[in-house]
Specification:
By secondary structure, this protein is of the alpha+beta class. The chain contains two helices and five strands, in the order E-E-E-E-E-H-H. It folds into two domains: 1-62, SH3 type barrels (Roll); 64-99. Helix 1 (67-79) packs antiparallel against helix 2 (83-95). The longest helix is centred in the last third of the chain and has 13 residues, at 67-79. The model has no long low-confidence stretch (mean pLDDT 85). This is IDEAL domain-containing protein.
Length: 99
């Protein structure tokens, strides 16, 4: 099961987005569905697409997250006026020395 804040890859065969890197934004009440904000495609190109995914369509990301990835998520936190999340992301960015 994934949690809000986890970095994940889309792992759906035959999907043009397979391999896209994203961030879990919401978890449904039963923990089977997730809203994921995808930020990079398989080739590393920036994208911004919010998609509903099921647990078996996602894999936990093992790749290092870039400063640009954090900045995109911080933009999302600011757009939703979730200032606590924004502070948390800034803190994680500093811990990983992405600033």
């Amino acid at each position: 099961m994934f949690r809000v804040g986890d970095w994940v890859y889309l792992n759906v065969p035959r999907s043009y987005m397979k391999g896209a890197l994203g961030y879990v934004d919401e978890v449904d009440d039963r923990g089977f569905g997730y809203m994921v904000e995808f930020l990079r495609d398989k080739q590393g190109r920036r994208m911004k697409k919010r998609v509903h995914c099921f647990r078996d369509e996602l894999a936990l990301a093992s790749e290092e997250v870039t400063k640009e990835d954090y900045e995109s998520i911080i933009d999302l936190a600011l757009a939703t006026r979730d200032f606590g999340w924004c502070r948390e992301l800034h803190s994680k960015m500093r811990e990983e020395k992405k600033v």
